[in-house]
Specification:
The protein is built from twelve helices and five strands. The protein has about 260 residues and is of the alpha/beta class. The protein has two domains: about 80 residues, no CATH class; about 180 residues, Rossmann fold. A five-stranded parallel β-sheet has the order 2-3-4-1-5. The protein is elongated and about 75 Å long.
Length: about 260
């Protein structure tokens, strides 16, 4: 009889645990549910007081949500490839200052709505550096958007013709950091210039832009094409900018030789 009572108690306890798990999932407390499941197959709960156990469950839920939020930001940023700050190679001779890069990776310039220009010849690592900054921003909860400049302006030009450009510009405006990669490689046409100006004007003094380009900053004026628009664009982004000018041989070529 006593054995039957013990068995019934165990079954009852398992039922309670399952009810708790079901409620956690229904309340979208997935991190807590995973931790609770872990506790049922280990002795972790036995070494804790009830309030300590609750604190542990809540901490696991917080970690789960933080990781999920970062993953959503990374997906939303639409990076072309993965690039992490810890993978930046400072040993390659290309004019990259570790001290400057580490200051930029603190993201103070993003929080202050300042801009960063990364220039250099093809293969020197411009896109990698800008993407690494973008990943760092996402890890710090900063909404980021990465885009090839020519493709973005082309997409917005089509959206303007369809009458949906305002919605697209709103999506860009919501991002605290905008990364414009490979800027000015393709000439900007008359329909794209006012769109570029709108983007720059919306962000001026409030939200950061990282621009990478093979062209030196001194050549951007001519690349934009129209003097009036060029004046307006550059006046809004140059004065609050940090700059990285990369030199040396293409890293891709160097790796290919190896």
């Amino acid at each position: 009889m006593e054995t039957n009572n013990k068995t019934a108690a165990i079954v009852q306890e398992k039922d309670k645990n399952q009810v708790s798990l079901d409620l956690m999932h229904r309340m979208k407390l997935h991190g807590m549910a995973a931790a609770f499941t872990e506790s049922m197959t280990s002795t972790v709960a036995e070494s804790m007081t009830p309030d300590g156990f609750l604190s542990w469950l809540l901490a696991r839920e917080w970690d789960y949500r933080s990781a999920a939020a970062i993953e959503r930001l990374i997906r939303g940023a639409a990076f072309r490839y993965k690039a992490y700050p810890e993978e930046i190679d400072y040993d390659i001779s290309r004019g990259l200052s570790r001290n400057q890069m580490e200051r930029l990776l603190s993201l103070d310039f993003v929080r202050q709505g300042q801009n960063l220009f990364i220039t250099g010849s093809s293969g020197t690592g411009k896109s990698f550096l800008s993407t690494a900054i973008g990943y760092q921003a996402c890890k710090n909860g900063i909404r980021t958007l990465y885009a090839n400049t020519s493709k973005l302006l082309g997409m917005l030009k089509v959206a303007k013709a369809k009458g949906t450009i305002e919605a697209e510009l709103k999506k860009i405006e919501r991002c605290q950091l905008l990364i414009l990669d490979d800027a000015f490689l393709v000439p900007i046409d008359a329909k794209e210039r006012p769109i570029l100006l709108d983007i720059i004007e919306d962000r001026h003094g409030r939200k950061a832009i990282v621009i990478s380009s093979q062209l030196p900053v001194a050549n951007w004026y001519d690349a934009i094409g129209d003097p009036t628009v060029a004046d307006a664009v550059l006046d809004r982004i140059v004065h609050s900018s940090h700059r990285i000018e990369l030199t040396g041989e293409s890293i891709r070529k160097m790796n290919a030789k190896k």
